[in-house]
């Protein structure tokens, strides 16, 4: 289950903005196992070298002892939320794929050792 906390700085936190953020981040639940907490900060910033409104969306995701962070600045607040969500999704996918690869490589090594093909011990990496 994903718990979402939203903080708005220099802009009004409207119900439609909260609903949009919840809707976008709820798609991350498919990738998460167990409980997770998302901290979202939405802000309107102005930098001296940019004209007009510049919106920033930051997402910090805590799940199973792991932390993921994404930040995106753009001219549209909703686009910034979407881009930050996509960055978090990319990090989650990369981490999951990396963990699966490490597990499979270890399992392959154990299988070879049990078959007698390799004398290498997968736990100590020694022969």
Describe the structure.
39% of the residues lie in helices and 29% in strands. It has 127 residues and is an alpha+beta fold. It has a single domain (2-101), classed as Double Stranded RNA Binding Domain, CATH 3.30.160.100. It has a 4-stranded mixed β-sheet with strand order 1-2-3-4, with helices on one face. Strand 3 (54-63) and strand 4 (66-74) form a beta hairpin. Helix 1 runs parallel beside helix 2 (77-115). The longest helix is centred in the last third of the chain and has 39 residues, at 77-115. It is elongated, with a radius of gyration of 21 Å. The chain starts with a strand and ends in a 12-residue tail after the last helix. The mean pLDDT is 86.
Protein traits:
single chain; 127 residues; alpha+beta; Double Stranded RNA Binding Domain; 2 helices; elongated
Short overview:
This protein is α+β, with helices and mostly antiparallel strands. It has two helices and four strands, in the order βαβββα.
The CATH fourth-level homologous superfamily: Ribosome hibernation promotion factor-like
Would you identify the CATH architecture? Answer: 2-Layer Sandwich
CATH fold naming: Double Stranded RNA Binding Domain
Number of strands: 4
* Shape field: elongated
The CATH C-level name is Alpha Beta
**Alpha carbon gap, first and last residue:** 44 Å
Main sheet overview:
4 strands, mixed
Q: How much β-strand is present in the residues?
A: 25-35%
Q: How many domains, as an integer?
A: 1
Helical segment tally? 2
